[in-house]
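Dear support,

I submitted the protein below through the web form. The confirmation email said the job was done, but the results page showed an empty box. After a refresh the structure appeared. I'm attaching both so you can tell me whether what I see now is the final result or a partial one.
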Amino acid sequence: MTDATALDAAHAAMEASPQDDAARLRFFERLADSELFLLLAEEAEDENITPELFDVADGRFVLAFDREDRLARFAERPVPYVALSGRVLSGMLAGQGMGLGLNLEVAPSSMLIPAEALGWLATTLEHAPEEVQQRLAEFLPPVGLPDDLLKALDTKLATAVGLAEAAFLVGTKSEDGGAGHLLGFVGAVEGAEPALAKAASEALTFSGIEAGAMDVGFFSRHDAAAAALARVGLKFDLPQPEQRVVQHITPGSDPDKPPVLK
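What the results page shows now:
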């Protein structure tokens, strides 16, 4: 018996509360963020992959597993596969009329996800935050934000390994008297700002919170604003890599160059 995964836990919560939209959103967020192992019909060739297809009464499905040992237990023989994130896989399958068989027969999260649901997920993940200019007069302790959002931020930022030193959630007051909330990233790696802003936006989306509930900002560790954030903000520590490892690029590992279905 293998240990339960994040997808197992999210699936169990969704099954326990079938009318709970928040639980369903959290499952799809975990699906997007998980590494999946997609069963192939033949070995990948460069960036081209051919998934193994299965036709059932509910339609045509590809099969993916959130652990390599689960794929091996299902296949019961050596099979070709490729590792890629759920967000990449949903984007690949969107509009193809194919659903996803997840962890079939080998895990508590075994389920068939229809093509329509994958299309919804791909569309949702395409949403990007809008950039605006605003002059802030004061940072304040954050108040009134739901626990679901705080948990979502904690989980999401745990995946942003090495992209920033820390993040602080604060209340804000603008120069024109407006109030709001800001997630301020301190010491972000150059070029990581769009990915961090999108991660924060997804935490809002999959918590069922309107996007206007929180802004995102970036600050140098030497900015006076960074010290002000640390004084009053709720801190989120971002994991830091222990060492830099050069890895061979395999199909599906670069989200900007997803594999091409054949």
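Response: this is the final, complete result; the empty box was a page-load delay. Helices lie at 6-16, 21-33, 68-75, 86-93, 115-126, 147-157, 193-205, 224-232.
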